[in-house]
Design a protein that fits this description.
The complex is a heterodimer of chains A (114) and B (630). Helices cover 79% and strands 0% of the residues of chain A. With 114 residues, chain A is an all-alpha fold. Chain A has two domains: 8-80, no CATH class; 82-114. Chain B has a single domain (10-554, 605-623), classed as Cytochrome c oxidase-like, subunit I domain (Cytochrome C Oxidase, Chain A, Up-down Bundle), CATH 1.20.210. Chain B is built from 19 helices and four strands. In chain B, strands 1-2 form a two-stranded antiparallel sheet. Chain B has a two-stranded antiparallel ribbon with strand order 3-4. The chains are: A mainly alpha (114), B mainly alpha (630).
Amino acid sequence: MAHHEEAVVRTPVEYAYERKKRSDQMKMQVVTFALMIFLTLIAFIAVNAGFSPYYVAPIILVFAGIQVVLQLYYFMHMNEPNMGFISFFMWSGIFIAFITVLCFVTIIWWHTAW
Amino acid sequence: MSSIAKKTGFGATVWDYITTVDHKKIGVMYLLAGTFFFVLGGIEALLMRIQLMRPNNDFVSAGFFNELMTMHGTTMIFLAAMPLLFGFMNAVVPLQIGARDVAFPFLNSLGFWLFFFGGVFLNLSWFLGGAPDAGWTSYASLSLYSEGHGIDFYVLGLQISGAGTLISGINFLVTIINMRAPGMTYMRMPLFTWTTFVASALILFAFPPLTIGLALMLFDRMFGANFFDHTMGGNTIIWEHLFWIFGHPEVYILVLPAFGLFSEIFATFSRKRLFGYSSMVFATILIGFLGFMVWAHHMFTVGLGATANAIFAVATMAIAVPTGMKVFNWLLTMWGGSIKVTVPMLYALGFIPSFVAGGVTGVMQAAAPLDYQLHDSYFIVAHFHYVIVGGIVLALFGSAHYYWPLMFNQMLDERLGKVTFWFFFVGFHCTFFVQHFLGLMGMPRRVATYGAEQGLDTFNLISTIGAALMAIGVLMLVINVVKTAIKNEKVGRDPWGDGRTLEWAIPQPVPFYNFRQTPLVRGLDTYWIEKQEGNEEGMTYAEPLGDIHMPNNSILPFIMTIGLFIASFGALYNMDADKPWSIFLLIGGLSILFACMFARSFKDDHGYHVHVEDILAEEERLYGKKGGNN
């Protein structure tokens, strides 16, 4: 399986197409990277500006979530075709984990704290 | 020398089964081990029923009764129902999708041995100071204060067998996604494959919460942690949530494959395409999805508050919708079909009213206010036995008859099978129907006895008589198996005459490589299509006859599991101050495990090729000169 290697010969059209696709991908990766740095900056600023933790904590959590999604889609290639099953399972797992955490935070922790 | 030459003899056969990675043999082992634990759990149930036969009985002590009921539940769920279903999944799913084995044959073997030794470990507690006694749910407020090592056996045993289940679940997911034959699109997969797929996804998501819960329990009991101890700032409700986040999907892990098995049986013996195939698939996925959003309906009386109870009540009732879709689809499959009432069909026909009864009482309990009345009464016991016996056990028995010829090339006796069904079916309703009334009359579950003046005697006696009838039914099934094995009459391919799916198109006995050529699937019920078109071979091939790549057998899974088994005893006794040797067991066992993992990781095993001449020789050995498909 991993032991035989195939030599791929591309036509000039295929080559141009691949090149165009790669450069588009590259562009998106750079944009995403800049966006992620920007989100991180906002997070740092929010902490340093001395806003209320009740405001800062949720903001940072939301940004963290966005960064995870950007990372998955643009750097770990989940935006490519044939990722249907993988993203379905990942999102299902995230959803189940989310309601589990939601349950622990709300009906166990808050509920018993009162 | 041929690459597939085999030794014969008893020792060689045992060695072959211990080292095998063949899904068909692993399926048989699951079936054997699952039946063993099923009988064990059944004996525990009978002892409980004898104790409850009359008021103020002293057949067993109250403490022993607690151990019996705990082990009955744990054994039946983890060690009987799941392995038996895995047995059918292993035996059938690769054949249904046109694969030569599962995606990870080594892991398949490892999964089996982990389950088996986890179960043996759990049951050894009977001889080593007492079995677990806090119920199969093992609520932390009770189990943390349980004397002796019972609960430790529960925690470690379930941790091991749970790892096996998780491994098998992932294996089936990958197998079904990656190993389907050409043309076997998702919407052409037989329903049993679909339900196996969804159940495996549920295993993937549901078992980690159990693992975490058990790990926290382990820390609390063995290392003095306080996750569940409210006097130390812990919270005992966390265990209940973790357990039921696993525990409710577990119900669907069990019942969805049972639905799949019945879907196959209904379509085959109604001699009609399954009605509403795509809605069946949709309902299966929807049940799997909703199954994760309803766990707190087991905890209505914990005091979650009205809002939480209302949300979980509504979500629970929503599950009745896709389940109802399935029931109507089965009915409409039979509608206008040319029905043949064989033993599997008899079980399927008995399943519908029994399971619907269990479902209806389930919706009753989903209404939170009513559940305050029903909670912890025999009504609950009646409900879940209607679901599990009426749904899953009937599916297992029916499928045992249905798939017996596929697995063993023999047909179980039909007449004896019908008598078995009636004994079991009547016994089942006799046992559990009256328990609804016992619950409404106020009999709490998990009690070792009751008073003579409470008016519960008659129904309890009826229930015990029913349990005896069920036991007779199980015995008759065992006799049927023995009788069939002695008679040893080969039945050949498609013995029911109405097989629709790919597994029935394979010549019998199934060669170890399953398909000499990978089949091309041309639609839903592909074998039916080929038969309609008069194709004698039963399948269209997607490739010419060529070398087949097969995995090597391995003893490593067995040794790994032995290592884990030994290490578990070390962990168990390590909390006793007077057993300093236990640490050596722990280290020794884990060393064996890690040595095996190291060996597996650093020594590549590429499997071997079965060459064309070997295939032809094997076919001549199995089917004589003329070959298999003629």
